[in-house]
Amino acid sequence: MTAVHLTAPDIDPSEVEYFEKLAHRWWDDQGPFWPLHKLNAFRLDYVRDRLCAAFGCDPDAERPLEGLEILDIGCGGGILSESVHQLGAKVTGTEITEKNVRVAEIHANWSGADIDYQLITADDLAASGASFDAVLNMEVVEHVEHLPDFLASCAKLVRPGGVMVVATINRTPVAWLSAIVGAEYVLGWLPKGTHHYRKLVKPKELAAGLGPEFQVIHETGVRVNPLNRHFSFSGYKGINYMMVFQRAGTAGSGA
């Protein structure tokens, strides 16, 4: 798959209304995508703090990620991409679903966000020679069919000294009970079938897939309170967790 920049001229006028309605749904924090908005506010602080720690930036600055080139893999409708862009980073968002790219571009046009959205796989992007200071792999790896190949491609996209932030769900019985049975079938927070137990990912599988060049520099469990829908950090990584990996080398040295 090659990169496709879906700017306004590329959108069939008959589809504009459809995608605008979809964009409104993606960006309605009280609508069906509310879990993403709740999660985004929580994970954005984590991303900011971890990237600032890795690159020596001031997390309290108005635009703390100024000067960093960041890739958001599986960007969806652009919720995290726009949030990171607002922190000063130059952001590229990639998707393999055309409608998500169109939704993201439409909202970026509305908000005046200069983000490079591309319809492309991680493998093809890596093959192009692209590389970034940081790669965000948030809630993506648990949907991948061939995880080692995907992680190998993602690893190539991180510059020496750069980092990768991964957020996913552990493959444990308690994760199955909580994240699949609870979230999808009992609470109805996510559509049924969103996650499949066999695709959930253990931390050691992430490390193995990225290879020996990558070292874990931070990790945390994530807890969600089903009563108030509040996310918080946890020492327990048996359900949701986030990890930050740094590639060996000197930051800014290029691929």
TrEMBL record:
Function in brief: O-methyltransferase that catalyzes the 2 O-methylation steps in the ubiquinone biosynthetic pathway.
Native species: Thiohalocapsa halophila
UniProt keyword annotations, A-Z: Methyltransferase, S-adenosyl-L-methionine, Transferase, Ubiquinone biosynthesis
Family in the record: Belongs to the methyltransferase superfamily. UbiG/COQ3 family.
PANTHER family linked to this entry: METHYLTRANSFERASE, UBIQUINONE BIOSYNTHESIS O-METHYLTRANSFERASE, MITOCHONDRIAL
HAMAP family in the cross-refs: UbiG
Protein's name in the database: Ubiquinone biosynthesis O-methyltransferase
Gene3D superfamilies: Vaccinia Virus protein VP39 (3.40.50.150)
One function term, GO molecular function aspect: methyltransferase activity
